Amino acid sequence: MTETAPIIRFEGVSKHYDSFQVLKGIDFAVARGERVVVCGPSGSGKSTLIRCINGLETIGGGTLTVDGIPVTEKTLPKVRARVGMVFQQFNLFPHLTVLDNLTLGPIRARGMPRARAREAAMRYLERVRIAEQADKFPRQLSGGQQQRVAIARSLCMEPEIMLFDEPTSALDPEMISEVLDVMTGLAQTGMTMVVVTHEMGFARKVADRMVFMDHGEIVETAPPEDFFTAPRSQRCRDFLDKILNH
């Protein structure tokens, strides 16, 4: 990590859906260049937590800053220029080719000349090992290939932070490793990453820090070695027992 100032900071963040409190006083920071894996049972608030970072969910209380910018409705364009996100579903435009899916954002949002956008798109498609599919449409690709396209599309916007919300959960088992390999390669470039996943082998290999959530709270944070070998809370032990032995 090159800097000590956090690039993401939650301070006392809460969030309700009607009367249900999904985030309860979250205090949490991510350092620049840090790779954090967030895990926990379904409904624990993991996806809501990372969707708050790029303003897909609005916080109900507390403060959240990204690269020193408070995340509010007014600042969303600035925040989203710094944050890329990859979802469970690939969210590609079905009527556009792979290449056009990648160049649309840089051309429209950043005013990048078409030739330069195409050059960058091909560079990122090569990085995710799928350059030969540039002229195909999403429906002609496997799920794993589509998710790799979605990662490349986010990278085309040159974000400082990448968020991943269970990026392999919609994939067949044989396609999971190809997406995790791409994410591992991305982690090695020093990109700040916050990943919600149940892929504990990936977490062990890539994460600088594990965050365990349950019932809208951060129950435990630890380096992977400590997290997997000596979890401190019973809730975390139960979760790991369930996920690692099934």
Q: What features would you highlight for this structure?
A:
membrane; four-stranded antiparallel sheet; P-loop_NTPase; 9 helices; cell membrane; 246 residues; six-stranded mixed sheet; globular; alpha/beta
Low-confidence stretches: none
Helix content: 25-40%
* Portion in strands: 25-35%
| Number of E strands | 10
Radius of gyration: 18 Å
Main sheet summary: 6 strands, mixed
General description of the model:
With 246 residues, the chain is an alpha/beta fold. 38% of the residues lie in helices and 26% in strands. It has helices spanning 46-53, 76-80, 98-110, 114-127, 143-156, 173-187, 200-206, 224-229, 234-244, and strands at 6-17, 20-31, 35-39, 61-66, 69-70, 83-86, 161-165, 192-196, 209-214, 217-222. The protein has a six-stranded mixed beta sheet with strand order 6-7-8-3-9-10, with helices on both faces. Strands 2-1-4-5 form a four-stranded antiparallel beta sheet, covered by helices on one side. A hairpin with a 2-residue loop joins β9 (209-214) and β10. α3 packs parallel to α5 and α4 packs across α5 (143-156). The model has no long low-confidence stretch (mean pLDDT 95).
